[in-house]
């Protein structure tokens, strides 16, 4: 079973059919050095209620990057546009996706190397603290 599967939109495949398996570390940002931080553990669909229909599937996944440098570049670009990023993105964690989980490139204007990760299985993601930003 997919994490957040009960929240997946009914009108199209989620994760999308072009999502793929990834074998390597993934990186996620957090507001806290506490590995139980809600911002780290929860997805957008669990934290907000103003998500547009065309973003529901993406909101059911975790916001991730393939490289720590991509996070730092995104912060540099985003900080000029969004002060909220500077408040939320304080720590970097890494984790290994399981073999059945999927990722998809989901870039935005300020986060060119952003990906969405859909976690498969009942086990929690095991995050490893990397660094303070």
Structure notes:
This protein has 133 residues and is α+β, with helices and mostly antiparallel strands. It has a single domain, classed as ADP-ribosylation fold (Alpha-Beta Barrel). The protein is 22% helix and 21% strand. The chain has five helices and six strands, in the order E-H-H-H-E-H-H-E-E-E-E. It has helices spanning 38-41, 44-47, 56-59, 68-78, 83-88, and strands at 26-30, 62-65, 91-95, 102-105, 114-118, 128-132. It has a three-stranded antiparallel β-sheet with strand order 1-3-6. The relative contact order is 0.28. The model has no long low-confidence stretch (mean pLDDT 87).
Summarize the model shown:
With 133 residues, this protein is of the alpha+beta class. It has five helices and six strands. It has a three-stranded antiparallel beta sheet. A three-stranded antiparallel beta sheet has the order 2-5-4.
Topology:
Blueprint: E1 26-30, H1 38-41, H2 44-47, H3 56-59, E2 62-65, H4 68-78, H5 83-88, E3 91-95, E4 102-105, E5 114-118, E6 128-132
CATH topology (fold) name: ADP-ribosylation fold
- What's the overall geometry? globular
Portion in beta strands: 15-25%
Q: Quick check: average pLDDT?
A: 87
User: What does the radius of gyration come to?
Assistant: 14 Å
Q: Could you give the order of strands across the largest sheet?
A: 1-3-6
Provide the structure class.
alpha+beta
Pick out the low-confidence regions.
Answer: none
Q: Helix coverage percent of residues?
A: 10-25%
